Amino acid sequence: MKTVVVGLSGGVDSSVAAYLLNEQGYNVIGLFMKNWHDDSVTISDDCPWLDDSNDAMLVAERLNIPFQTVDLSVEYKEKIVDYMFNEYKNGRTPNPDILCNREIKFDIFLKIALSLGADFVATGHYCRKDKIKTGSDFPVYRLLSGVDNNKDQSYFLCQLSQKQLSKSLFPIGDLTKPEVREIAAKQNLITANKKDSQGLCFIGKVRLPDFLQQQLKPKEGQIIEIPESFESYLINQPRFKTFQEELAFRATKTKYVCSDGTVVGSHQGAHYFTKGQRKGLGVGGTSEPLFVIDTDVVDNIIYTGQGKNHPGLYRSVLLIQSSEVHWVRPDLKIDLGESLKVMARIRYRQKLEAASLYSNSDGIYVVFDSPQSAITEGQFVAWYLEDELVGSGVIS
Question: I need a labelling partner for 215 at 20 to 30 A (CA). Which of 24, 44, 162, 227 fits?
Fold first, then answer.
C-alpha cells in the first residue's frame, strides 16, 4: 500500500483530496503546515491559521486518518517573507504563492513527508499530472491544466521540477469546484461550505501596506500623471540592426522623469504600489480613474495614467534572464537561436494569450501577439503547449 501525505490546509479542496485518496486505497496522513504567527496584519476572519488548523484536524478525524501539525514559520520567513520584502524594496512585484509551492509545499514539506515514509505528497490544487514515455530511459511527467477552467491553478505550480512532480498527486484536478463541494457535503466534511481562502499563501488576506511596513517604512513622495499623448519613447525609437536589438528595446519599460507629467497628489511609499494598480492612490477629479503605470523606488515617485487603455500600461515583449528560466519539461527546452510558439499568461486567472519564445544570449524573450496590460517586473510568466504547462520564468 502506497503512503501519501496530504497537505490539509483546512479548506474544502484539500479535504476532498484526502477523502479521494483514502477511497483509492492509499495510506493517507494529514499534515497541517503552520507558517505564520503574526495575526496583526491579517484581516479579521480571513484565513486565521488557528481556525484552519482546527478544521483540518476535524476533517482528519472524520476520515479516520492520522493528523499532525508542523511549524515551518522559520523556513517560511526566510524563503518567502524575506524574499517579498526584498522584491518590494527594489520596486518589483513578487508572487509569493508560486515561491511557496516551489520552496515550501513541494520542497520542505515534501522532505518531511518522505521522512515519514510517504511515497507521495498531495494537495488540493486544481491541476493534473500524467506520465509519458519520450524515448529516454526515464519517464517524463506532465503538468496539465485543471478540468475546471474557472479554477485551474497550474500557473501557481509553474516552478515545479520533474523530481517534485514525480512525488506529487493532485486528486481533484479532474473535478470542478461544485463537484468538490458536493463530495464534501455528502461526506459531512466540516469544510464543505467554507469559503475559499484569499491572499498570501498561508497568511491569508492581509493589508499589504501594513504587512510591508514591518520592514519598509512610509516615505512621502509625489504622484505624477503622464498624459496619454506622451510618446517620446516612440519618437526616439532607433533603427534596429538586428532582431535581437529590436526585442531588447521593446522589452525595456519606458523611463519616465518628473517633467514628463504633472504632480496630482502624494503617497506614502512607492514600494507599496505595483503597476496596473488603481485603488489606494487617493486622487480624484480626473475624467477617468488613474492607474499606476510605473514606480520609481529610488526617487520615490509613482507615475500614473488615466484609464485602463493608457499606452503606458501596455507592452508586448518581456525578457526572462537566463538564470530565471525554468523548464518544467527540460526535454522541450529551446536552444540559443531557436523559437517556439506557445500560449502564455503573466498572472493567475488571465486567459492564455498567443505568444512566441525567442532564445538568445540575453535569455528568453516572450513576444505576445497582442500587447499585455501591466507586465510587471518580479512576476512570473508561464507558457503552455495546449493544456500542458511546460515552462516559466521571472519577468525582468
Answer: 44
Least confident stretch, 101-110, 122-131, 250-259: 250-259
The confidence score (pLDDT) of residue 57 equals 97
CATH number reported for the structural domain that contains residue 357 in this entry: 2.40.30.10
| Active-site annotation holder among 47, 100, 127, 158 | 100
Beta-sheet strands, E only, within 261-378: 262-267, 290-296, 301-306, 314-321, 325-327, 339-345, 353-360, 363-373
Domain range holding 384?
314-394
Q: For this structure, is 258 an active site residue?
A: no
Q: Is 47 a catalytic residue?
A: no
Residue 236 has pLDDT above 70, yes or no: no
Non-local (6+) Cβ contacts of 152 within 8 A are: 126, 127, 145, 146
Residues 179 and 33 in one domain: yes
Q: Which residue in 47, 127, 158, 201 is the catalytic one?
A: 201
Three-class DSSP category at 66 = coil
